[in-house]
Specification:
Blueprint: H1 3-15, E1 18-24, H2 29-45, E2 50-53, E3 79-83, E4 91-92, E5 101-106, E6 117-120, H3 127-136, H4 144-157, H5 168-181, H6 185-193, H7 197-209, E7 211-212, E8 217-222, H8 224-229, H9 236-240, E9 252-259, E10 264-271, H10 277-282, E11 286-287, E12 291-296, H11 302-315
Parallel strand pairs: 1-2, 1-3, 3-5, 5-6, 8-9
Antiparallel strand pairs: 1-4, 7-8, 9-10, 10-12, 11-12
Helix pairs in contact: 2-3, 2-4, 3-4, 4-5, 4-6
Bound molecules: manganese (II) ion (MN).
Amino acid sequence: MEKKDCRSIFNIIKKYNSIVIARHMGPDPDALASQIVLRDTIRDTFPEKKVYAVGAPTSKFKYLGTLDKIDEEICKDSLLIIVDTPDRKRVDGPDPESFAYSIKIDHHPFLEKICEEEFIDDSASSVCQIIVELIYSTKLKMKKEYAEKLFQGIVSDTNRFMFAYTTSKTFYLVNKLIEEEKLDFTKLYETLYMRPLNESRFMGYIEQNIVVEKSGFAHIKLTSEIIDKFKVDPASAGNMINNLCYIDEIKVWAFFSEDNKNKTVRVSVRSRDIVINKLAEEFGGGGHKFACGMRLANMDSADEVIEAYDKLCMEQR
Ligand SMILES: [Mn+2]
């Protein structure tokens, strides 16, 4: 994000006494950390402002902080900030049109305009990276607790600095965080990656059972019976998908996880170098070039997606 954009965001924040911060459904550490730190630093810098972070909470990431409930009443006089969300249908929160003003801060490739002003830097590794820049280039306050959460968001979105949109700027900003806020980053990795044995066994099940096509496309259907058997959360498969990154026979891989509670099938797709997000958009999903996803009404529609990705991989051979 350019300095002038950071200053514009700061000037908009300054103007409103009530601010609501929203992000995407099924939040990951980048969405939650950027949302919560932005709320807390605004509260810290401007104690007279009312600032809320909204959306469904996730117990798995409760170490990143708690969320707020709001009265719809307050929207009309408030500024809405949407982070980490490229399209309207994925926003977990109230309608942007019910607010006095709305801005988007994102690093996803542009999909649609949902706010009055949009600040998008699709060269940034994560929204947390943008928030670090925003804080360091304005009067917003940084402190150790914020630095720790922002570090975790960056690490999570870059898969420990392995993804291609990790840049020298990412390392520069992370270096500044570690140096100035004296982060104990090995401890932070522990919080981020510690998991129960059943999740690890579930990963073992995936590795044993994933189907690999001749094209290099690999896929697995994780039905609710399997998810229940391993006592894992339907969202947890999505967090494990990066583990299959460096396998000779696999070029593109997808997990289909059935979520009975929300009556949906979450699909996560990853790739090393074949662009996969355009195809996801055709199925109503989206995301980054090499990491994207979609939701399906039920497992019956999975085969259509499998066929399409198999064909895409075949064409790229
Ligand atoms: Mn993100």
